[in-house]
Design goal:
Elements lengths: L1 E7 L2 E7 L6 H7 L2 E11 L2 E10 L19 H4 L5 E12 L2 E7 L9 E2 L2 E3 L6 H13 L4 E17 L2 E15 L15 E8 L10 H9 L13
Parallel strand pairs: 1-4, 5-10
Antiparallel strand pairs: 1-2, 3-4, 5-6, 5-8, 6-7, 6-11, 9-10
Length: about 230
């Protein structure tokens, strides 16, 4: 379970469980608040997302929404699938003007493209511990000073290689520090990562990254929304 808590003027003004397919900012906006992530507490199964909130303006009101992404299912098919929420933690790690990236393996749906290091949080694990573990497994780097900076969600309903799915991705985006960067080595052989590299920030325009990386780098201010990326 994920609980979202909004704080304003030193008191809790909003608190709700994050429902399947929901986005925290959309729910807060529906309650009259705009929010900024401040941190995450607890472990998978009992996570609390903390937001600093302020009264929303009319421009902050959530739009009508387009519903979940992906090819739709028939009513009969929908009754046969079990909604699945995956909570994952990722990190933007920059050292010496280089960004740490991982290349997705053939077993994934985006083989050859580049992603931020990170992955699913294990039961009973905190997001911070998941970031440290995933970065070490996928790149061989040791990181600290892990800080939540954004929460990104995606809801997908349709058919995939795994069959019929009602899939809610909750991605907890962090920044982290790597005090002693070394040559990246993938330790989780046979997993979702085939390669890892420190990519100079000046070369990001030539790297084929997945869409979530683009959004993450805009969120932390490394690139602006007008940055030109290579075509997939």
């Amino acid at each position: 379970m994920i609980t979202v808590v909004g704080w304003h003027d030193g008191r809790v003004v909003a608190s709700f469980p994050l429902g399947h397919g929901a986005d925290p900012l959309d729910v807060l906006a529906g309650q009259g608040w705009r929010g900024t992530p401040q941190g995450v507490d607890g472990v998978l199964g009992a996570l609390t997302l903390r937001y600093a909130v302020a009264p929303a303006s009319p421009d902050d009101a959530p739009g009508p929404g387009t519903g979940p992404e992906g090819p739709g299912l028939t009513r009969a098919e929908r009754t046969r699938i079990v909604p699945h929420q995956r909570v994952a933690a990722y990190a933007v790690v920059v050292e010496q003007d280089r960004l740490l990236l991982t290349q997705l393996a053939p077993r994934t749906g985006a083989a050859g493209r580049w992603n931020l290091p990170g992955g699913g949080i294990d039961p009973g694990e905190s997001p911070e511990a998941a970031v440290v573990r995933e970065v070490a497994e996928e790149t061989g780097q040791v990181v600290d000073t892990v800080r939540l900076v954004d929460v990104m969600t995606q809801h997908w309903v349709g058919r995939s290689q795994r069959g019929l799915e009602d899939y809610h991705a909750v991605r907890l985006l962090h920044t982290a520090r790597c005090p002693r960067p070394t040559r990246p080595v993938v330790h989780d052989v046979g997993g979702s990562t085939s390669d890892a590299r420190w990519v100079p920030l000046a070369d990001l325009g030539s790297v084929d990254v997945v869409a979530s990386v683009k959004a993450a780098l805009v969120s932390v201010g490394l690139v602006d929304g007008q940055h030109v990326w290579p075509q997939a």
